[in-house]
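We treat protein structure as text, and this decision shapes the records that our systems exchange. We quote a single record here, exactly as it is kept in our systems:
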Amino acid sequence: MIYETETVLPGPEVLRRAKVFFTERVPHHAAFLEQEGPTFATFRGQGGEELAMVPCPPLHQLERPSQPRVTAGSVSVAPALRVRVWVTDVWDTVELSLTSESTIAELKAAALARATGRSEDPARYVVKYRGAMVSDEGQTLGGLGVPDGAPFIVLPARRQPVR
């Protein structure tokens, strides 16, 4: 669903106010800032829904350049899948919010980055789901039929010798 509104505020001010509004609201309107850039902000709601704000100049701004306006649209996307990923290298479990269109390769890269706190080569690791290795990492979570809260394991592709 797309909502649009017009304002005389410049784009950066719209984003600043959106961050304040969503992070300081009562629980049923609250959302947490997930990603941001100079021209966008993405929030995650309490139910896992995603809200993206992108201020952009409207077409009528070209007709009336003396009236600077910004159109901010928000897109509500389907709720995210929350998955648990055990990363054996650090003996830690991380929780990720992904969409059903996310690939296993994206899951692996995100889990390694969050668990280790550094950039790891994802090619050195494999992913297991329901006890079996997922050989096609281009497969989506929806394609695998992954339910909300599903567990995964990320482990080295080659076993490390015990010393």
User: Anything to note?
Assistant: The chain has a mean pLDDT of 77. The longest helix spans residues 11-23. The two ends are 56 Å apart (CA to CA).
